[in-house]
Amino acid sequence: MKKRMLGTLALSLSMLVACGGGDTPNPEPRPDPKPPTPITDFSGLKTLKPGEQATIRTKLKVNVVFVGYRQTAPGQIATARQVDTRDFNQTLPKAYEAIARIPSSYGRTEPTGNAFDYQYNYVFADQGFEDSFFDYLGKNGKAAPVTVYQKLYNCQNDVDPATGDPTCKTPAGNINRVVDSNFEIDARKTEDWLANNVGRVGVKPGEYTVFMVNWFDRPDFKLHSYTRDDAADTDTGSPFGKKASRRLIAWGGSVNAAGPAQRVWFYDLSANPDVWTNGYDVTNADVDGYDVADYRMPPIWDYGSRKASLGYGRKVSPDLALVTRYVALNLLFTPSPIYRAALTPPLSPEEIGLDVHVEQGKGAVTQSKVYNTDLAQKRIAVLQPFAKFSTTVKETPLDGSLADVYRCFFPDPEKPEDLCSPNYADAAGEKLFQYGVKELRQEYAGTPANKYLLPIYLFNDQTDSQAGLLGIAYDDGETGTQAFVYSFLTPSLNAAGYGFTDTSVHEVGHHLSLSHPHDGYDSEQNISYGPSGDFLYANVGDESASIMSYNDLSREFGQFNLDSQYRYLSAAYLNNTNAILELTRRAAKEGAVLGAATAADGLFAQAQTSYDALNYLDAATKAHAGYRAVLDAAKTAGVNVQAYKWYENLSGLSVGKGKPAYSASFRPQKGAVIFPEENTFQRSKRLGQ
């Protein structure tokens, strides 16, 4: 009992000690923890990466909707006009990474910072949708005469050797159907109907969608073509939309100002046959004159033919997959630009001056009749929505030394040697280029530092000094940076219906980054291609709503153009900001800019969310705000941020110095190349009847 009581007492004492009771001294107090060191560098940024080339990567859903096509049943052999989605799975790319094509042609690939991981959704429209759509077509067209190109299809090689006009009394024996009627349907209204009804096939409005159309296999089929009858030149009013050469089999990408963005493009092989890709010629292998077979698509009824024609043994499914990849994706939906959208990295200009030089030939049509200053600026301004635009116009006579350097741009092809620039790689244009550089340097001497001068030269020639080139957007010849915009007008071109307004807007579109919808780049295969050889069918990309097209059916930039430009700008602002932050770090000014950088980091995260949701203008708006916050803070902190000025960094264009990869044709080539503005084949289409 005693031992038990002693044990209890000992336990009680130990508890008192544990509780701090008794006479036990208090332990020494611990020092307060050291306060955290304030973060004064950029290590906490999540979206911004100072000094790095960033990429905005997004998952992009692409819908391919088949209307009038039947799917090959499991285990069955695909017939000529059936669709097997395995052809698409084997052909379509998994991803795409955009590059600045002309800068990349100088030997160092320049990603724009835009990358896509594609997600494909194949839909076969149900009977109800097909009945509604083809009923709409049948009720909303008009009977029209058979066009000369439809007659050429009927006659094939039986043509007048002097004029090329069809002369046959009996249709060619190698075609499968005579085109003896023509039902014309408005292409824009057809696009609108499809865009307004995408929900009926389970597609969300505003998503990228290709409609593959085949009316032929229905009892209500009509031989038809699509038109843009109201399309006319801005200056001359020339009705390009009424030309037979502008009859279409495809259309899409129009801007819908009243509702969701319209990202629809349709392709109808049961129409026309196609003019723009020589689909009406099913006999001759080479149609562009480069002595290589040109791949293009015949009309739907010639697929699987046993006759000696373009359709012999062909199946439509693989061809539709080719058009989806090399036209819809690479040229329309997610193309690579030809130039850097940033213009003057690591800064982007807040003011852009359209610096227009009208070189007026004596006796040429007056400037006011062929150039609408205000309208041109209004159309161009949408490509740089955060810059303030202005225009100055200076008219000088096209004579004297200016006339000499202009003539050198179009040298006589019969002269064996270049007499204008014998010591330069740019044999034809060097003198004109140097003339422009001199003028530009003089003009910049009195221009505010934050203003970008976009030099536009309009050569209004009183003579037919050249074969029909309308314009070109020139680079600096050393780094692939955009330099001058040239537009040309001759009496013959003016008589053909052309002025300067539409041409100059097209060429400025190039300068600000946009490419043609008929030549482009495939990033997975690392090839550049245009409408020639294996890719002649790519010319159908022109059958879309874009002033960058060559068919003269659009006066403004379309939805696909705007999407692309705003994506390019979003990435440009991101990478400009990364560069400015790196300059700030090197100047040991991180602490002064950290608050702005943190706020911008959040804005760029929001921009990514908008970008993923296809709200590209909103993404660019947030990216621009983040860029401006960092730039303003850096300038306030005294960081030296300088815009790249190509005209101050020229060391000459001598042979072998900075020579780019240039192609004289549109035939496919590895890597990034500079393609010609147009070739003889395209010019014949543009000037066709």
UniProtKB/TrEMBL annotation:
Assigned keywords, A-Z: Signal
Entries under InterPro entries matching the protein: MetalloPept_cat_dom_sf
Signal peptide interval: 1-20
Region Disordered, residue ranges: 20-46
Ubl conjugation listed as a keyword: no
The keyword ATP-binding appears for this protein: no
Protein name: Peptidase M43 pregnancy-associated plasma-A domain-containing protein
